Design the sequence.
């Protein structure tokens, strides 16, 4: 049965290893945002032997490109983007100690293998629920690549950010399990 | 009699509809969510549908976008042949409406050069389709279309021998391969016939039809319901977490095609199906 788990970042190997697919997670603490363009830049930095703009060990990357904040708000709508576009980059970041990714949609086999090998999890947030999710984001600061606009890297402080474990460190995949359960053809 | 319309009116309508479409989810989509709540058997699926209803409420009340992907602005125009547009360039008037709407509405600017990947910073150019029709009015649709579902769309240039069975297979296959990626529950827009580009345009235009309204062609209406049944047997469910509600609707348009061809385009639309229309 799936559990309800409250997690506070940074995450340890023990914390992520205890999670199983279907677990409902409420995240607290810091998550870093990055999507297509930012991932390319992160990998370019690594290729050039340079440091990343934030310490990645134990952290979570949220695949999101938020809409602009209206006056008086910290963020606009901020739901997940489709994760497969980050698949070419993710294994390298997992190897460096990234413990979690938040997005929506299927991951490539290489990413799932990296999660098992280096102990990391993939969390799904509800795509298209950007207004709802934004309510759990309490502070936002652009920490790199401001010129990328929505694609800049942001440091977000979240309170009870809702997500579900899609891929765990045991190689489980909630999408496959869910479809198998309800498929009628 | 030739009626006159200043293009500023078009700019204003586009500006308003960009904001309204992105903040106020249509009643047609909300009704589908409520109906799906009655038929969905997956507990997680039900929970997702409830989240989507709550999300739409927050967006409407707090005037924030339903989804951060406020899309490329797709604008359809039907211009009456007895209407004289004054005051400037029609297309520029549309772009200006998009520029103002996406700026003032705090909507995300998602438009960039495909090669340099440098953002245009105001979500222009809009994608504009203009048709000339009888009459002296202008009808304008604004359809913000997100990237996640657009990426899961496909065109198939089938051989005529593939027939109806081949068409159904390709549509179901497209939805199956997309899985959780396009934010199910989706709406499946299908264009059958025409040629390569027309099939895609017909698929897109099918998404303008409000959910819950029948296809005016009874044969296509029957086909839509049959394919919806097939798609919803895939088990993908809301957000791909398993369930009976993979798609809310299948919409089909068809056009005559070449004797050698059977084009089929499938334009996948996420549950944030946003479209507003206005007659000027």
Sequence:
């Amino acid at each position: 049965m799936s559990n309800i788990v409250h997690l506070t970042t940074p995450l340890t190997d023990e914390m992520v290893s205890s999670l199983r697919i279907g677990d409902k997670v409420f995240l607290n603490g810091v998550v870093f945002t990055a999507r297509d363009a930012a991932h390319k830049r992160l990998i370019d930095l690594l290729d050039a032997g340079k440091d990343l703009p934030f310490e990645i060990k134990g952290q979570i990357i949220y695949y999101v490109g938020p809409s602009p904040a209206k006056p008086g708000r910290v963020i606009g709508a901020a739901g997940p983007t489709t994760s497969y576009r980050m698949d070419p980059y993710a294994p390298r970041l997992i190897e460096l100690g990234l413990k979690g990714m938040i997005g929506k949609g299927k991951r490539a086999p290489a990413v799932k293998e990296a999660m098992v090998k280096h102990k990391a999890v993939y969390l799904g947030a509800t795509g298209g629920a950007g207004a709802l999710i934004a309510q759990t984001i309490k502070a936002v600061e652009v920490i790199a690549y401001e010129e990328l606009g929505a694609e800049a890297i942001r440091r977000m402080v979240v309170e009870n950010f809702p997500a579900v474990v899609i891929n765990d460190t045991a190689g489980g995949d909630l999408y496959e399990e869910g479809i198998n359960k309800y498929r009628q053809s | 009699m030739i009626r006159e319309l200043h293009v500023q009116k078009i700019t204003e309508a586009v500006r308003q509809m960009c904001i309204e479409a992105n903040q106020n989810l249509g009643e047609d989509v909300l009704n589908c969510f409520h109906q799906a709540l009655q038929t969905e058997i997956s507990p997680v699926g039900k929970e997702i549908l409830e989240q989507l209803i709550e999300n739409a409420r927050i967006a409407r009340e707090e005037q924030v976008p339903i989804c951060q992907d406020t899309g490329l602005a797709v604008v359809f125009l039907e211009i009456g042949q007895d209407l004289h547009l004054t005051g400037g360039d029609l297309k520029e008037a549309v772009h200006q409406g998009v520029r103002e709407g996406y700026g003032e509405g705090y909507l995300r600017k998602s438009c960039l050069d495909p090669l340099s990947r440098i953002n245009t910073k105001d979500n222009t150019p809009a994608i504009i389709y203009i048709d000339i029709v009888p009459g002296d009015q202008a009808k304008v649709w604004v359809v913000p279309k997100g990237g996640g579902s657009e990426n899961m769309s496909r065109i198939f240039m089938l051989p005529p021998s593939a027939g109806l069975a081949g068409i159904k297979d390709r549509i179901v296959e497209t939805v199956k391969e997309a899985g959780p990626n396009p934010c199910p529950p989706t709406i499946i827009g299908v264009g059958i016939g025409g040629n390569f580009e027309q099939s895609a345009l017909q698929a897109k235009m099918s998404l303008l039809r409000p959910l819950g309204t029948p296809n005016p062609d009874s044969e296509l209406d029957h086909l839509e319901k049959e394919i919806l049944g097939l798609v919803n047997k895939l088990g993908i469910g809301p957000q791909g977490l398993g369930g009976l509600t993979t798609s809310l609707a299948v919409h089909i348009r068809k056009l005559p095609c070449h004797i050698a061809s059977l084009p089929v385009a499938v334009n996948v639309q996420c549950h944030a199906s946003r479209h507003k229309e206005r007659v000027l």
